[in-house]
Amino acid sequence: MSIPQIGEKAPDFSGVNQKGKTVSLADFAGKKLVLYFYPKDDTPGCTAQACNLTENHRALLKQGYVVLGVSPDTEKQHIKFIDKYKLTFDLLADTEKETIQAYGVWVEKSMYGRQYMGVARTTFIIDEKGLIMDVIEKVKTKEHTAQILK
What we know:
The structure is a single chain. This protein is an alpha+beta fold. The protein has one domain: Glutaredoxin (3-Layer(aba) Sandwich), CATH 3.40.30. It is 27% helix and 31% strand. The chain is built from five helices and nine strands, in the order E-E-E-H-H-E-H-E-H-E-E-E-E-H. The chain has helices spanning 44-55, 57-62, 75-85, 98-102, 144-149, and strands at residues 14-17, 22-24, 32-37, 65-71, 90-93, 106-111, 114-119, 122-126, 132-136. The chain has a seven-stranded mixed beta sheet with strand order 2-1-5-4-3-8-9. Strand 1 and strand 2 (22-24) form a beta hairpin. The chain is globular. The two termini are 28 Å apart.
């Protein structure tokens, strides 16, 4: 699938968060959602990004944003990641990569000449009506909140 573009309806999703609760796009109706996709819990870039969002969570809430992270990690991995870094928002366990694929961020990547499939670090800002307001593909992990609030 291709990445949804600004102005398009956000693809519906449903998945389980770290508390075992099913979360779907409909749960955020009437709210602005920061839906961010990242490759793996507790890796340097993913940790920097999650910590930046946690450090600035109040500012995001003040602007009306709810934050939800999505990765292919399990609920158990998410719990460890959240506890270790005191993250202040939910993480969706997308082990089957359904939401990841619906948003077009499961892509071929390359490292040290090796090709593999993985999650392209991407953030979607979704408005109160479920429309894509912004897509951030060049995420600066340590400055991500500033990119969102620009």
